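Section 5: illustrative case.
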């Protein structure tokens, strides 16, 4: 540009000179001075956007908004001589890209700048006033618009409240587990560079009732006046009512509720005892407090013992139930001597008196005594023991009624050992006995009777013999003898034998009455007879301290007599059912409270045909002196098929010890291999009889002999009481396998 100016061309010679002037103009393209490209202002204000340019000739300035030319109108837009654009009364729509364009003959230049018009915040979503229950949850919502997007914060009573940052002009203030301090005036504040907006709401806290019962346990005596206090707080003030044992209390003259909520009970009775609950409610919730009231009263009898008559050897129970507060203690006296339970005498948990194996000497007056802190009372009842008459020994036989030939002899006995007492029945059976007698006989010649019937085959399997007999009237006093054979024997054959062992051996260990049994040994022989399998068993190496206890433990031999029992009517014994391989759990319970448990492990038959087993005993039995006279009555055991591999058996039994009856009971559970199948009947009955016991104290040996057989039960294909038939009909199931209890 500095080359611009007036240039003179001058010509000179000798003849003279001449000159010519010319003007040089240098044109420069426009250039716009660049400054800040981002411009900011606020709604309602005016804003000037300069356009500082240079160029030769001076450029012409034109403005564009968002690529569209701006036409100055002196109201919204004006452009001064320097090219500055003025925008009046800014609105949000004025935000955009503004372009200054400078032009002259040498060229043009453009410069874009962005104007952002900021809008102050305006709250569009206002929070609402809240009523909140203590420990509850409430949410305050606030939303605002503006450019740029406003930031929202919260205050409570002018103090800032911590909250998550707002998002897109929205905020939620969440208060959980509200406390009383959370009540107050909450303000939503929306801010951006253009300004701020606020809105305030009220949060009111409702407090649930708080109940305080100062006396949680009250003790009074009958007829006293009782005041149960109930201190209550809460907002709004709660309503109060009382319940007793979960039911509303009927107020009246005797039971009243005071203005402060306390409950007054006049002239208290035992029926007033219980749990009293003070319940307070308001709009915020409810609260309750509990007080337990005990009304003390002296003891009195609810159930009294009555005069009782019991058969000797039976069980006597006298009931006695006493009421009172505190609960009375109950004791028993015979005459005026307090009864200490033990042996045959027990006091049950319900305070009933029970005497087992009642004896004549138990006859007398029994008193029930009830006592508590307010007094004591007595009631009495009489026990009479009924004794049935028993015969004395037979007298000697009288002389034969005839001196020759056949006559009669008589003998007698008296019903005085003991005589009937307290209504007992007279002796059973004849008091007179007779028999035939012969002093001398005349000569009688021998003579055969008719042949008897053929006997059954001597064996139930394989080849045997059967015979028949006739009787020869033996010649007496020189009579002629019978001619011919007395017996006739022929062969018989039946089905092949099912080989059942006839001998058993096993070990017996454990403890009884805390005395160890370490070397016990059992051997037994089983002999078939017409009446059943005859068992001859011996227990060796019994410690002397407990030798007397084994005299009644016949079920310790169960692996012998159930396994080898004679089968009747198609029933199966233990050997046929299990092949002599099974486990058995046994429990014995005596009327005097002792319990003995046994585990039998039967392992089958060895190569010598001997049944092998092991037995473990544990528990206690009645203490019996070694020289006790023990007699076991015949008994039965019911075997019930309870599953494809299990049986249940039970038995109630009776023994006589030194003349006194003692009941006891057994129950068994048996498990065996499923491959052997089930019993042919749902229920089978095992019967034992002819039980004999012999004790050899010196050799520490006890011997048993008895007969056993097993047969179908009378209702062999029906499940007994307490059991139900399973869906397949092959065994009985019960709610619980019962344990036989001695009463």
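Designed sequence:
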């Amino acid at each position: 540009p500095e080359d611009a100016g007036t240039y003179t061309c001058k010509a000179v010679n000798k003849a003279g000179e001449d000159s010519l002037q010319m003007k040089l103009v240098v044109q420069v393209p426009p250039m716009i001075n660049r400054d800040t490209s981002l411009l900011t202002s606020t709604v309602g204000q005016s804003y000037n956007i300069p356009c500082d340019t240079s160029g030769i000739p001076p450029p012409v300035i034109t403005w564009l908004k968002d690529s569209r030319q701006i036409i100055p109108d002196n109201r919204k837009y004006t452009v001064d001589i320097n090219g500055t654009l003025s925008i009046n009364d800014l609105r949000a729509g004025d935000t955009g890209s503004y372009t200054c364009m400078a032009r002259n003959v040498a060229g043009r230049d453009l410069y874009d700048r962005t104007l952002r018009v900021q809008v102050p915040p305006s709250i569009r979503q206002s929070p609402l006033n809240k009523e909140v229950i203590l420990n509850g949850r409430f949410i305050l919502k606030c939303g605002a618009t503006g450019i740029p997007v406003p930031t929202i914060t919260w205050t409570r009573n002018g103090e800032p409240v911590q909250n998550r940052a707002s998002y897109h002009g929205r905020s939620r203030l969440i208060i959980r587990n509200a406390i009383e301090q959370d009540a107050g005036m909450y303000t939503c504040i929306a801010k951006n560079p253009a300004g701020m907006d606020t809105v305030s709401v009220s949060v009111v806290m409702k407090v649930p009732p708080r109940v305080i019962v100062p006396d949680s346990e009250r003790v009074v005596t009958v007829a006293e006046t009782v005041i149960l206090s109930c201190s209550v707080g809460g907002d709004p003030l709660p309503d109060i009512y009382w319940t007793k044992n979960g039911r509303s209390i009927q107020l009246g003259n005797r039971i009243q509720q005071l203005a402060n909520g306390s409950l007054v009970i006049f002239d208290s009775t035992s029926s007033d005892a219980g749990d009293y609950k003070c319940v307070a409610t308001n709009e915020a919730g409810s609260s309750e407090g509990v007080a337990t009231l005990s009304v003390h009263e002296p003891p009195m009898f609810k159930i009294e013992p009555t005069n009782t008559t019991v058969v000797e050897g039976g069980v006597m129970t006298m009931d006695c139930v006493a009421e009172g507060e505190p609960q009375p203690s109950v004791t028993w006296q015979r005459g005026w001597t307090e009864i200490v339970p033990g042996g045959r005498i027990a006091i049950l948990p319900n305070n009933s008196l029970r005497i087992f194996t009642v004896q004549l000497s138990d006859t007398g007056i029994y008193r029930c005594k009830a006592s508590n802190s307010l007094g004591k009372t007595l009631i009495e009842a009489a026990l009479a023991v009924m004794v049935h008459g028993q015969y004395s020994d037979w007298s000697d036989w009288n002389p034969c009624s005839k001196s020759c030939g056949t006559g009669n002899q008589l003998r007698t006995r008296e019903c005085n050992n003991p005589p009937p007492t307290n209504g007992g029945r007279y002796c059973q059976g004849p008091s007179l006995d007779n028999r035939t007698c012969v002093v001398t006989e005349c000569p009688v010649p021998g003579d055969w009777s008719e042949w008897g019937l053929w006997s059954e085959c001597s064996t139930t399997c394989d080849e045997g013999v059967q015979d028949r007999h006739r009787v020869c009237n033996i010649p007496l006093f020189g009579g002629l003898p019978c001619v011919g054979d007395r017996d006739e024997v022929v062969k018989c054959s039946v089905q092949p034998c099912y080989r059942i062992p006839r001998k058993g051996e096993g070990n017996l260990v454990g403890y009884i009455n805390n005395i160890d049994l370490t070397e016990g040994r059992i051997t037994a022989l089983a002999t078939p007879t017409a009446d059943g399998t005859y068992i001859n068993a011996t227990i060796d190496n019994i410690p002397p301290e407990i030798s007397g206890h084994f005299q009644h433990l016949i079920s310790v031999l169960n692996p012998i007599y159930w396994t080898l029992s004679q089968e009747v009517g198609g029933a199966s014994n233990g050997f046929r059912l299990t092949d002599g391989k099974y486990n058995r759990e046994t429990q014995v319970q005596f009327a005097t409270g002792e319990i003995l448990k046994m585990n039998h492990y039967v392992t089958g038959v060895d190569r010598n045909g001997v049944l092998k087993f092991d037995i473990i005993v544990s528990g206690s039995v009645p203490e019996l002196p070694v020289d006790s006279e023990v007699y076991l009555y015949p008994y039965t055991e019911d075997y019930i098929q309870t599953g494809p591999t299990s049986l249940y058996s039970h038995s109630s039994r009776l023994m006589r010890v030194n003349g006194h009856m003692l009941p006891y009971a057994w129950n068994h559970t048996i498990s065996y291999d499923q491959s052997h199948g089930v019993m042919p009947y749902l229920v089978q009955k095992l019967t034992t009889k002819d039980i004999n016991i012999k004790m050899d104290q010196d050799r520490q040996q006890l011997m048993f002999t008895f007969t056993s057989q097993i047969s179908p039960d009378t209702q062999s294909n029906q499940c007994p009481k307490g059991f139900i038939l399973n869906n397949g009909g092959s065994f009985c199931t019960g709610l619980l396998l019962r344990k036989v209890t001695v009463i």
